[in-house]
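Researcher: Predict the fold of Starch-binding associating with outer membrane.
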Amino acid sequence: MKIFKYIPKVVFILAVLVASSCKESLTEINENPNGVDPNTANPNLLMPTVMTGVGTQYLKLGYGRIAGVVQHTQEDAWKDGFNDYNWTEEDDEWKAWYGFLRNNDLLYKRSVAMGFTFHQGVALTMKAFIFGTITDLWGDAPYTNALKGDQGEMLPAFDSQEVIYKGIIEDLKQASSLFATADVSTYAPGYDVFYNGDKLKWQKFANSLLLRYYMRVSSKLPDVAKAGIEQIYTSGIYLKEASDDAVMDYIGAASGDSWPTAIAFDVSQSNWRRRRPAAALLNTMAASNDPRMKVWFQPVHVRWVSDATLKTGMDEFIRKDGVIQNGVKSLTEQELREQITAGRKFTRHFNPALYKPTRAELFNGPLNTGEYVGIPAGMIDPTYYNENPTTGQQVQNQHASQLSYAYQNSKGGFLKARLASAAETAFILAEAAQKGWAAGGAEAHYNNGIKQSLQTWGVADQFDAYVKAVAYKGTLAQIMEQKWIASWTASTEAWFDYRRTALPALAPGLAPASRALPLRFIYSNNEMNNNGSNVRSAIDKLEETNFSGPRKKNSQWSKPWLVQGTGKPW
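Model: C-alpha coordinates for Starch-binding associating with outer membrane follow.
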Protein backbone atom coordinates (compact mmCIF):
# COMPACT_ATOMS: atom_id res chain seq x y z
CA MET A 1 0.00 0.00 0.00
CA LYS A 2 2.83 2.39 -0.78
CA ILE A 3 1.44 5.11 -2.99
CA PHE A 4 3.35 6.55 -5.87
CA LYS A 5 6.21 4.19 -4.99
CA TYR A 6 5.91 2.67 -8.39
CA ILE A 7 5.07 5.81 -10.31
CA PRO A 8 8.51 6.04 -12.05
CA LYS A 9 7.82 2.62 -13.54
CA VAL A 10 4.32 3.69 -14.50
CA VAL A 11 5.67 6.79 -16.24
CA PHE A 12 8.24 4.71 -18.11
CA ILE A 13 5.69 2.20 -19.34
CA LEU A 14 3.32 5.00 -20.32
CA ALA A 15 6.14 6.58 -22.28
CA VAL A 16 6.76 3.30 -24.10
CA LEU A 17 3.07 2.99 -24.89
CA VAL A 18 2.96 6.55 -26.15
CA ALA A 19 6.00 6.05 -28.33
CA SER A 20 4.73 2.78 -29.78
CA SER A 21 1.32 4.26 -30.50
CA CYS A 22 2.65 7.11 -32.65
CA LYS A 23 2.68 6.70 -36.40
CA GLU A 24 5.96 6.83 -38.25
CA SER A 25 4.55 9.57 -40.38
CA LEU A 26 4.00 12.83 -38.53
CA THR A 27 1.83 14.12 -41.34
CA GLU A 28 -1.19 12.24 -40.03
CA ILE A 29 -3.92 14.61 -38.94
CA ASN A 30 -6.47 14.24 -36.13
CA GLU A 31 -4.03 12.21 -34.03
CA ASN A 32 -2.50 13.24 -30.72
CA PRO A 33 1.14 12.15 -30.94
CA ASN A 34 1.46 12.35 -27.16
CA GLY A 35 -1.72 10.46 -26.30
CA VAL A 36 -2.43 6.88 -25.29
CA ASP A 37 -5.03 5.23 -27.44
CA PRO A 38 -8.04 4.49 -25.16
CA ASN A 39 -8.65 1.37 -27.23
CA THR A 40 -5.30 -0.12 -26.23
CA ALA A 41 -4.85 1.26 -22.69
CA ASN A 42 -3.73 -1.30 -20.12
CA PRO A 43 -6.02 -1.42 -17.03
CA ASN A 44 -3.00 -1.81 -14.77
CA LEU A 45 -1.70 1.59 -15.87
CA LEU A 46 -5.08 3.24 -15.29
CA MET A 47 -5.63 2.03 -11.73
CA PRO A 48 -3.14 4.27 -9.88
CA THR A 49 -4.42 7.37 -11.69
CA VAL A 50 -7.93 6.73 -10.38
CA MET A 51 -6.90 5.65 -6.89
CA THR A 52 -4.44 8.43 -6.16
CA GLY A 53 -6.77 11.10 -7.52
CA VAL A 54 -9.66 9.91 -5.37
CA GLY A 55 -7.53 9.40 -2.27
CA THR A 56 -5.96 12.85 -2.52
CA GLN A 57 -9.28 14.65 -3.08
CA TYR A 58 -11.10 12.74 -0.32
CA LEU A 59 -8.36 13.56 2.19
CA LYS A 60 -8.43 17.24 1.22
CA LEU A 61 -12.07 17.33 2.31
CA GLY A 62 -11.74 15.22 5.44
CA TYR A 63 -8.62 16.96 6.71
CA GLY A 64 -9.75 20.32 5.32
CA ARG A 65 -12.91 22.36 5.58
CA ILE A 66 -15.23 19.45 6.41
CA ALA A 67 -13.12 19.02 9.54
CA GLY A 68 -14.14 22.60 10.25
CA VAL A 69 -17.82 21.75 9.80
CA VAL A 70 -17.75 18.81 12.23
CA GLN A 71 -15.46 20.72 14.60
CA HIS A 72 -12.41 18.54 14.46
CA THR A 73 -10.36 21.63 13.65
CA GLN A 74 -10.71 25.38 13.26
CA GLU A 75 -8.52 27.90 11.48
CA ASP A 76 -7.04 31.05 12.98
CA ALA A 77 -7.17 33.19 9.84
CA TRP A 78 -8.69 33.23 6.34
CA LYS A 79 -11.30 31.12 8.05
CA ASP A 80 -14.58 32.04 6.31
CA GLY A 81 -14.83 28.87 4.26
CA PHE A 82 -13.39 26.68 7.00
CA ASN A 83 -15.01 27.81 10.26
CA ASP A 84 -18.00 29.78 9.00
CA TYR A 85 -19.32 27.73 6.03
CA ASN A 86 -19.16 30.77 3.74
CA TRP A 87 -19.19 28.60 0.62
CA THR A 88 -19.69 29.40 -3.04
CA GLU A 89 -20.43 27.27 -6.09
CA GLU A 90 -18.30 24.15 -6.21
CA ASP A 91 -16.89 24.26 -9.75
CA ASP A 92 -13.47 22.76 -9.06
CA GLU A 93 -14.78 20.08 -6.70
CA TRP A 94 -17.48 19.02 -9.17
CA LYS A 95 -14.99 18.87 -12.06
CA ALA A 96 -12.54 16.84 -9.99
CA TRP A 97 -14.98 14.08 -9.06
CA TYR A 98 -16.44 13.75 -12.54
CA GLY A 99 -12.90 13.74 -13.90
CA PHE A 100 -12.12 10.72 -11.74
CA LEU A 101 -15.25 9.04 -13.08
CA ARG A 102 -14.11 9.49 -16.69
CA ASN A 103 -10.76 7.85 -15.97
CA ASN A 104 -12.48 5.10 -14.01
CA ASP A 105 -14.97 4.50 -16.81
CA LEU A 106 -12.07 3.86 -19.18
CA LEU A 107 -10.58 1.48 -16.59
CA TYR A 108 -13.84 -0.45 -16.46
CA LYS A 109 -14.37 -0.59 -20.22
CA ARG A 110 -10.83 -1.78 -20.88
CA SER A 111 -11.12 -4.37 -18.10
CA VAL A 112 -14.30 -5.76 -19.63
CA ALA A 113 -12.80 -5.76 -23.13
CA MET A 114 -9.73 -7.65 -21.92
CA GLY A 115 -11.58 -9.97 -19.55
CA PHE A 116 -9.73 -8.68 -16.46
CA THR A 117 -12.22 -9.60 -13.74
CA PHE A 118 -10.15 -8.27 -10.84
CA HIS A 119 -9.81 -4.89 -12.52
CA GLN A 120 -13.55 -4.83 -13.23
CA GLY A 121 -14.17 -5.26 -9.52
CA VAL A 122 -11.77 -2.43 -8.71
CA ALA A 123 -13.44 -0.13 -11.23
CA LEU A 124 -16.94 -0.88 -9.93
CA THR A 125 -15.82 -0.28 -6.34
CA MET A 126 -14.22 3.03 -7.26
CA LYS A 127 -17.26 4.01 -9.34
CA ALA A 128 -19.46 3.43 -6.30
CA PHE A 129 -17.12 5.38 -4.04
CA ILE A 130 -16.93 8.35 -6.41
CA PHE A 131 -20.65 8.52 -7.19
CA GLY A 132 -21.33 8.02 -3.48
CA THR A 133 -19.17 11.01 -2.64
CA ILE A 134 -20.85 13.14 -5.32
CA THR A 135 -24.41 12.44 -4.19
CA ASP A 136 -23.39 12.72 -0.52
CA LEU A 137 -21.93 16.16 -1.18
CA TRP A 138 -24.51 17.68 -3.55
CA GLY A 139 -27.67 15.57 -3.69
CA ASP A 140 -29.15 14.65 -7.09
CA ALA A 141 -26.53 14.38 -9.82
CA PRO A 142 -25.94 13.05 -13.36
CA TYR A 143 -25.68 9.28 -12.98
CA THR A 144 -27.51 7.05 -15.47
CA ASN A 145 -26.60 9.23 -18.47
CA ALA A 146 -23.31 10.56 -17.11
CA LEU A 147 -20.08 9.77 -18.98
CA LYS A 148 -21.89 9.33 -22.30
CA GLY A 149 -20.53 12.33 -24.14
CA ASP A 150 -19.15 10.05 -26.87
CA GLN A 151 -22.73 8.91 -27.42
CA GLY A 152 -23.99 12.45 -27.81
CA GLU A 153 -25.30 12.77 -24.24
CA MET A 154 -23.79 16.20 -23.57
CA LEU A 155 -26.42 17.51 -21.13
CA PRO A 156 -27.26 14.56 -18.88
CA ALA A 157 -30.32 14.62 -16.66
CA PHE A 158 -29.83 14.52 -12.88
CA ASP A 159 -30.88 11.29 -11.20
CA SER A 160 -32.46 11.32 -7.76
CA GLN A 161 -30.39 10.41 -4.73
CA GLU A 162 -32.57 7.33 -4.30
CA VAL A 163 -31.66 6.09 -7.78
CA ILE A 164 -27.98 6.83 -7.26
CA TYR A 165 -27.72 5.11 -3.87
CA LYS A 166 -29.54 2.04 -5.21
CA GLY A 167 -27.16 1.98 -8.19
CA ILE A 168 -24.15 2.26 -5.88
CA ILE A 169 -25.39 -0.69 -3.85
CA GLU A 170 -25.83 -2.84 -6.95
CA ASP A 171 -22.35 -1.95 -8.25
CA LEU A 172 -20.79 -2.89 -4.92
CA LYS A 173 -22.66 -6.19 -4.84
CA GLN A 174 -21.35 -6.97 -8.32
CA ALA A 175 -17.83 -5.93 -7.32
CA SER A 176 -17.92 -8.18 -4.27
CA SER A 177 -19.04 -11.12 -6.42
CA LEU A 178 -16.25 -10.46 -8.91
CA PHE A 179 -13.60 -10.34 -6.19
CA ALA A 180 -14.82 -13.67 -4.81
CA THR A 181 -13.75 -15.48 -8.01
CA ALA A 182 -11.49 -12.95 -9.74
CA ASP A 183 -8.42 -14.02 -11.68
CA VAL A 184 -5.58 -11.88 -10.35
CA SER A 185 -3.00 -13.27 -12.76
CA THR A 186 -3.69 -10.28 -15.02
CA TYR A 187 -2.66 -7.86 -12.27
CA ALA A 188 0.80 -6.31 -12.56
CA PRO A 189 2.27 -5.91 -9.03
CA GLY A 190 2.69 -2.34 -7.85
CA TYR A 191 -0.18 -0.66 -9.65
CA ASP A 192 -2.85 -1.16 -6.99
CA VAL A 193 -1.83 1.48 -4.45
CA PHE A 194 -4.41 0.38 -1.87
CA TYR A 195 -4.02 -3.41 -1.62
CA ASN A 196 -1.44 -4.47 -4.24
CA GLY A 197 -3.76 -6.95 -5.87
CA ASP A 198 -5.16 -8.63 -2.74
CA LYS A 199 -8.65 -9.52 -3.95
CA LEU A 200 -9.92 -10.56 -0.49
CA LYS A 201 -9.06 -7.16 0.94
CA TRP A 202 -10.79 -5.52 -2.00
CA GLN A 203 -13.87 -7.63 -1.32
CA LYS A 204 -13.77 -6.54 2.32
CA PHE A 205 -13.49 -2.92 1.18
CA ALA A 206 -16.44 -3.27 -1.21
CA ASN A 207 -18.59 -4.91 1.47
CA SER A 208 -17.63 -2.26 4.02
CA LEU A 209 -18.73 0.40 1.56
CA LEU A 210 -21.99 -1.51 1.26
CA LEU A 211 -22.38 -1.24 5.03
CA ARG A 212 -21.66 2.49 4.77
CA TYR A 213 -24.29 3.15 2.12
CA TYR A 214 -26.88 0.86 3.63
CA MET A 215 -26.60 2.84 6.86
CA ARG A 216 -26.60 6.08 4.88
CA VAL A 217 -30.09 5.32 3.52
CA SER A 218 -31.39 3.63 6.67
CA SER A 219 -33.84 6.43 7.52
CA LYS A 220 -35.30 6.49 4.00
CA LEU A 221 -35.06 2.83 3.00
CA PRO A 222 -35.01 0.98 6.34
CA ASP A 223 -35.98 -2.43 4.99
CA VAL A 224 -33.29 -2.32 2.31
CA ALA A 225 -30.72 -1.18 4.86
CA LYS A 226 -31.62 -3.80 7.46
CA ALA A 227 -31.56 -6.73 5.06
CA GLY A 228 -28.34 -5.55 3.45
CA ILE A 229 -26.42 -5.00 6.67
CA GLU A 230 -27.56 -8.30 8.10
CA GLN A 231 -26.42 -10.10 4.93
CA ILE A 232 -22.96 -8.51 4.98
CA TYR A 233 -22.58 -9.22 8.70
CA THR A 234 -23.52 -12.87 8.15
CA SER A 235 -20.96 -13.18 5.35
CA GLY A 236 -18.18 -12.09 7.71
CA ILE A 237 -16.37 -10.45 4.80
CA TYR A 238 -15.75 -6.82 5.74
CA LEU A 239 -12.97 -4.71 7.23
CA LYS A 240 -12.25 -6.08 10.70
CA GLU A 241 -8.65 -5.12 11.37
CA ALA A 242 -6.97 -1.72 11.05
CA SER A 243 -4.31 -3.37 8.92
CA ASP A 244 -6.99 -3.92 6.26
CA ASP A 245 -8.04 -0.26 6.04
CA ALA A 246 -8.29 1.22 2.55
CA VAL A 247 -5.48 3.77 2.71
CA MET A 248 -3.20 5.68 0.36
CA ASP A 249 0.32 6.72 1.32
CA TYR A 250 1.99 9.87 0.02
CA ILE A 251 5.21 10.03 -1.98
CA GLY A 252 6.18 13.52 -0.74
CA ALA A 253 8.05 14.61 -3.88
CA ALA A 254 5.95 17.68 -4.67
CA SER A 255 3.10 19.60 -3.11
CA GLY A 256 0.51 17.68 -5.13
CA ASP A 257 1.62 14.29 -3.83
CA SER A 258 2.38 15.36 -0.25
CA TRP A 259 0.36 15.76 2.91
CA PRO A 260 -1.66 19.02 2.58
CA THR A 261 0.07 20.88 5.43
CA ALA A 262 3.62 19.79 4.55
CA ILE A 263 5.98 22.66 5.34
CA ALA A 264 8.46 21.56 2.66
CA PHE A 265 6.23 23.38 0.19
CA ASP A 266 5.07 26.14 2.53
CA VAL A 267 8.02 28.15 3.82
CA SER A 268 5.86 30.23 6.17
CA GLN A 269 4.33 27.07 7.64
CA SER A 270 1.05 28.96 7.41
CA ASN A 271 -1.17 26.06 6.36
CA TRP A 272 -0.03 23.96 9.30
CA ARG A 273 0.14 26.81 11.82
CA ARG A 274 -3.30 28.27 11.10
CA ARG A 275 -5.05 24.94 11.64
CA ARG A 276 -5.88 24.23 15.27
CA PRO A 277 -7.75 21.51 17.13
CA ALA A 278 -11.37 22.48 17.75
CA ALA A 279 -12.55 22.77 21.33
CA ALA A 280 -15.48 20.39 20.73
CA LEU A 281 -13.18 17.51 19.79
CA LEU A 282 -10.30 18.27 22.11
CA ASN A 283 -12.47 18.81 25.19
CA THR A 284 -14.28 15.54 24.56
CA MET A 285 -11.00 13.69 24.28
CA ALA A 286 -9.44 15.38 27.31
CA ALA A 287 -12.44 14.49 29.49
CA SER A 288 -11.78 10.78 28.98
CA ASN A 289 -7.97 10.98 28.71
CA ASP A 290 -8.14 9.77 25.12
CA PRO A 291 -4.64 8.52 24.16
CA ARG A 292 -5.08 9.69 20.55
CA MET A 293 -5.08 13.29 21.76
CA LYS A 294 -1.31 13.26 22.32
CA VAL A 295 -0.75 11.73 18.88
CA TRP A 296 -2.78 14.35 17.02
CA PHE A 297 -2.17 17.50 19.06
CA GLN A 298 0.43 19.35 21.10
CA PRO A 299 0.17 20.80 24.58
CA VAL A 300 -0.04 24.59 24.66
CA HIS A 301 3.33 26.25 24.48
CA VAL A 302 2.50 28.78 27.20
CA ARG A 303 0.02 27.54 29.78
CA TRP A 304 -2.18 29.81 31.90
CA VAL A 305 -1.80 29.40 35.68
CA SER A 306 -4.40 30.63 38.18
CA ASP A 307 -2.63 32.69 40.86
CA ALA A 308 -4.68 34.40 43.58
CA THR A 309 -1.57 36.21 44.86
CA LEU A 310 -1.05 38.13 41.62
CA LYS A 311 -1.57 41.88 42.09
CA THR A 312 -2.83 42.42 38.52
CA GLY A 313 -5.41 40.67 36.40
CA MET A 314 -2.81 38.83 34.37
CA ASP A 315 0.87 38.75 33.57
CA GLU A 316 1.88 41.08 30.77
CA PHE A 317 4.94 38.96 30.01
CA ILE A 318 5.54 35.23 29.86
CA ARG A 319 7.44 33.23 32.48
CA LYS A 320 10.18 30.73 31.76
CA ASP A 321 10.47 28.11 34.49
CA GLY A 322 8.44 30.44 36.70
CA VAL A 323 10.59 33.53 36.14
CA ILE A 324 9.04 36.60 34.46
CA GLN A 325 10.74 37.42 31.18
CA ASN A 326 10.45 41.21 31.28
CA GLY A 327 9.61 42.72 27.91
CA VAL A 328 8.82 39.32 26.35
CA LYS A 329 5.13 38.87 25.59
CA SER A 330 5.73 35.97 23.25
CA LEU A 331 8.36 33.95 21.44
CA THR A 332 8.34 32.62 17.90
CA GLU A 333 7.17 29.11 17.19
CA GLN A 334 10.74 28.03 16.47
CA GLU A 335 12.07 29.54 19.72
CA LEU A 336 9.34 27.92 21.78
CA ARG A 337 9.83 24.57 20.09
CA GLU A 338 13.56 24.57 20.70
CA GLN A 339 13.34 25.65 24.32
CA ILE A 340 10.47 23.34 25.23
CA THR A 341 12.37 20.46 23.65
CA ALA A 342 15.31 21.44 25.87
CA GLY A 343 13.08 21.14 28.95
CA ARG A 344 12.02 24.76 29.54
CA LYS A 345 8.47 25.41 30.78
CA PHE A 346 6.55 28.54 29.82
CA THR A 347 3.55 29.98 31.66
CA ARG A 348 1.55 33.14 32.29
CA HIS A 349 -0.23 33.80 35.56
CA PHE A 350 -3.61 35.42 36.12
CA ASN A 351 -5.68 36.33 39.15
CA PRO A 352 -9.25 35.07 38.57
CA ALA A 353 -10.61 37.71 40.97
CA LEU A 354 -8.99 40.57 39.02
CA TYR A 355 -8.89 39.30 35.44
CA LYS A 356 -10.89 41.26 32.85
CA PRO A 357 -10.90 40.35 29.14
CA THR A 358 -8.81 42.63 26.93
CA ARG A 359 -11.37 42.49 24.10
CA ALA A 360 -14.59 41.19 25.64
CA GLU A 361 -16.46 41.44 22.33
CA LEU A 362 -14.00 38.95 20.82
CA PHE A 363 -13.08 36.83 23.83
CA ASN A 364 -15.02 37.14 27.05
CA GLY A 365 -13.19 34.45 29.03
CA PRO A 366 -12.79 32.48 31.12
CA LEU A 367 -9.15 31.69 30.50
CA ASN A 368 -8.48 28.07 29.61
CA THR A 369 -5.80 26.66 31.91
CA GLY A 370 -5.72 23.21 30.31
CA GLU A 371 -2.62 21.48 29.05
CA TYR A 372 -4.45 20.93 25.77
CA VAL A 373 -6.59 23.81 24.51
CA GLY A 374 -8.84 23.84 21.45
CA ILE A 375 -10.39 26.75 19.57
CA PRO A 376 -14.19 27.13 20.02
CA ALA A 377 -16.25 26.83 16.85
CA GLY A 378 -17.25 29.86 14.81
CA MET A 379 -15.49 32.62 16.75
CA ILE A 380 -15.72 36.11 15.27
CA ASP A 381 -11.93 36.37 15.51
CA PRO A 382 -10.31 33.14 16.76
CA THR A 383 -6.88 34.77 16.96
CA TYR A 384 -8.04 36.48 20.18
CA TYR A 385 -8.88 33.23 21.92
CA ASN A 386 -7.42 32.74 25.38
CA GLU A 387 -5.75 36.18 25.47
CA ASN A 388 -3.35 35.46 22.65
CA PRO A 389 -0.80 38.33 22.59
CA THR A 390 -0.04 37.87 18.87
CA THR A 391 -3.41 38.44 17.25
CA GLY A 392 -4.48 39.24 13.72
CA GLN A 393 -2.38 38.05 10.81
CA GLN A 394 0.49 37.01 13.07
CA VAL A 395 -1.55 33.91 13.88
CA GLN A 396 0.71 32.32 16.44
CA ASN A 397 -1.41 31.60 19.46
CA GLN A 398 0.88 30.38 22.20
CA HIS A 399 -2.11 29.76 24.50
CA ALA A 400 -3.87 27.25 22.20
CA SER A 401 -2.77 23.80 21.07
CA GLN A 402 -1.41 23.11 17.62
CA LEU A 403 -1.56 19.99 15.51
CA SER A 404 1.23 17.48 16.00
CA TYR A 405 4.50 18.32 14.28
CA ALA A 406 3.99 15.09 12.32
CA TYR A 407 1.47 17.01 10.20
CA GLN A 408 4.31 19.22 8.98
CA ASN A 409 5.82 16.24 7.18
CA SER A 410 5.32 15.41 3.53
CA LYS A 411 4.83 11.66 3.91
CA GLY A 412 5.31 8.66 6.13
CA GLY A 413 3.98 7.42 9.44
CA PHE A 414 0.25 7.91 9.81
CA LEU A 415 0.03 10.45 6.96
CA LYS A 416 -2.41 8.45 4.87
CA ALA A 417 -5.61 9.18 3.02
CA ARG A 418 -8.11 6.76 4.58
CA LEU A 419 -11.10 5.87 2.39
CA ALA A 420 -12.66 3.28 4.71
CA SER A 421 -11.62 1.67 7.98
CA ALA A 422 -12.30 -1.25 10.27
CA ALA A 423 -13.19 1.27 12.98
CA GLU A 424 -15.92 2.83 10.83
CA THR A 425 -17.27 -0.61 9.94
CA ALA A 426 -17.43 -1.64 13.61
CA PHE A 427 -19.35 1.48 14.56
CA ILE A 428 -21.81 0.91 11.69
CA LEU A 429 -22.45 -2.60 13.01
CA ALA A 430 -22.78 -1.23 16.55
CA GLU A 431 -25.46 1.18 15.33
CA ALA A 432 -27.23 -1.63 13.45
CA ALA A 433 -27.20 -3.84 16.54
CA GLN A 434 -28.40 -0.93 18.66
CA LYS A 435 -31.38 -0.68 16.30
CA GLY A 436 -32.17 -4.33 17.06
CA TRP A 437 -30.98 -5.70 13.72
CA ALA A 438 -29.32 -9.11 13.51
CA ALA A 439 -25.75 -7.82 13.43
CA GLY A 440 -24.21 -9.12 16.65
CA GLY A 441 -23.80 -7.25 19.92
CA ALA A 442 -23.73 -3.46 20.00
CA GLU A 443 -21.27 -3.29 22.88
CA ALA A 444 -18.81 -5.70 21.27
CA HIS A 445 -18.84 -3.73 18.02
CA TYR A 446 -18.56 -0.42 19.90
CA ASN A 447 -15.52 -1.67 21.80
CA ASN A 448 -13.98 -3.06 18.62
CA GLY A 449 -14.46 0.27 16.84
CA ILE A 450 -12.49 1.97 19.59
CA LYS A 451 -9.85 -0.77 19.54
CA GLN A 452 -9.30 -0.54 15.79
CA SER A 453 -9.04 3.24 15.90
CA LEU A 454 -6.47 3.10 18.69
CA GLN A 455 -4.60 0.50 16.65
CA THR A 456 -4.56 2.85 13.66
CA TRP A 457 -2.93 5.62 15.68
CA GLY A 458 -0.41 3.44 17.50
CA VAL A 459 -1.92 3.55 21.00
CA ALA A 460 -3.66 0.15 21.17
CA ASP A 461 -1.79 -0.64 24.39
CA GLN A 462 -4.01 1.90 26.17
CA PHE A 463 -7.28 0.32 25.08
CA ASP A 464 -8.21 -1.24 28.44
CA ALA A 465 -7.93 2.01 30.37
CA TYR A 466 -9.67 4.08 27.72
CA VAL A 467 -12.60 1.75 27.07
CA LYS A 468 -13.39 1.84 30.81
CA ALA A 469 -13.54 5.62 30.68
CA VAL A 470 -16.03 5.55 27.80
CA ALA A 471 -17.85 2.32 28.69
CA TYR A 472 -20.87 1.61 26.51
CA LYS A 473 -24.19 2.31 28.21
CA GLY A 474 -26.50 1.45 25.34
CA THR A 475 -26.94 4.84 23.68
CA LEU A 476 -26.66 5.86 20.05
CA ALA A 477 -25.03 9.10 21.21
CA GLN A 478 -22.02 7.14 22.53
CA ILE A 479 -21.62 5.20 19.30
CA MET A 480 -21.75 8.32 17.18
CA GLU A 481 -19.41 10.25 19.44
CA GLN A 482 -16.73 7.57 19.24
CA LYS A 483 -17.26 7.22 15.50
CA TRP A 484 -16.91 11.02 15.17
CA ILE A 485 -13.58 10.92 17.03
CA ALA A 486 -12.36 7.95 14.98
CA SER A 487 -13.10 9.79 11.73
CA TRP A 488 -10.19 12.18 12.32
CA THR A 489 -8.77 13.21 8.88
CA ALA A 490 -11.75 11.44 7.24
CA SER A 491 -14.37 13.79 8.61
CA THR A 492 -16.65 13.68 5.58
CA GLU A 493 -18.12 10.53 7.13
CA ALA A 494 -18.72 12.36 10.41
CA TRP A 495 -20.51 15.11 8.48
CA PHE A 496 -22.79 12.68 6.69
CA ASP A 497 -23.49 10.89 9.99
CA TYR A 498 -24.32 14.17 11.71
CA ARG A 499 -26.69 15.04 8.89
CA ARG A 500 -28.80 11.89 9.40
CA THR A 501 -28.51 11.56 13.21
CA ALA A 502 -27.85 15.09 14.58
CA LEU A 503 -25.04 13.50 16.59
CA PRO A 504 -22.79 14.67 18.11
CA ALA A 505 -24.88 17.70 19.09
CA LEU A 506 -22.66 20.28 17.39
CA ALA A 507 -23.56 23.98 17.25
CA PRO A 508 -22.08 26.87 15.24
CA GLY A 509 -20.55 29.86 16.98
CA LEU A 510 -21.34 33.52 16.43
CA ALA A 511 -19.46 34.14 13.18
CA PRO A 512 -21.23 31.80 10.71
CA ALA A 513 -23.90 33.43 8.58
CA SER A 514 -26.44 30.79 9.57
CA ARG A 515 -27.25 29.33 12.96
CA ALA A 516 -26.91 25.75 11.76
CA LEU A 517 -24.28 23.46 10.29
CA PRO A 518 -24.45 23.12 6.49
CA LEU A 519 -25.90 20.02 4.84
CA ARG A 520 -24.59 19.98 1.25
CA PHE A 521 -22.46 21.64 -1.40
CA ILE A 522 -23.80 24.26 -3.82
CA TYR A 523 -24.24 23.18 -7.44
CA SER A 524 -21.46 24.21 -9.80
CA ASN A 525 -21.70 27.48 -11.71
CA ASN A 526 -20.27 25.77 -14.76
CA GLU A 527 -22.99 23.14 -14.61
CA MET A 528 -25.63 25.84 -14.12
CA ASN A 529 -24.39 27.67 -17.21
CA ASN A 530 -24.10 24.63 -19.45
CA ASN A 531 -26.75 22.22 -18.19
CA GLY A 532 -29.12 24.72 -16.64
CA SER A 533 -32.51 23.09 -17.10
CA ASN A 534 -31.34 19.81 -15.56
CA VAL A 535 -29.65 21.57 -12.66
CA ARG A 536 -32.74 23.66 -12.00
CA SER A 537 -34.85 20.51 -11.93
CA ALA A 538 -32.53 19.07 -9.28
CA ILE A 539 -32.60 22.31 -7.28
CA ASP A 540 -36.41 22.31 -7.34
CA LYS A 541 -36.35 18.99 -5.47
CA LEU A 542 -34.24 20.37 -2.62
CA GLU A 543 -36.10 21.43 0.51
CA GLU A 544 -35.55 25.05 1.46
CA THR A 545 -35.16 25.55 5.22
CA ASN A 546 -35.24 28.45 7.64
CA PHE A 547 -31.45 28.60 7.31
CA SER A 548 -31.19 28.50 3.50
CA GLY A 549 -30.78 32.26 3.16
CA PRO A 550 -30.56 34.27 -0.07
CA ARG A 551 -29.49 31.28 -2.17
CA LYS A 552 -32.83 29.71 -1.33
CA LYS A 553 -32.95 26.09 -2.48
CA ASN A 554 -29.44 25.94 -3.95
CA SER A 555 -27.98 26.59 -0.52
CA GLN A 556 -25.64 24.68 1.74
CA TRP A 557 -28.48 24.67 4.29
CA SER A 558 -31.16 23.14 2.07
CA LYS A 559 -32.13 19.52 2.55
CA PRO A 560 -31.52 16.84 -0.09
CA TRP A 561 -33.78 13.78 -0.38
CA LEU A 562 -31.67 11.81 2.08
CA VAL A 563 -32.79 13.88 5.06
CA GLN A 564 -36.10 15.26 3.86
CA GLY A 565 -38.90 14.17 6.17
CA THR A 566 -36.53 12.72 8.78
CA GLY A 567 -36.50 15.71 11.12
CA LYS A 568 -32.69 15.54 11.07
CA PRO A 569 -30.40 17.12 11.87
CA TRP A 570 -32.76 20.00 12.69
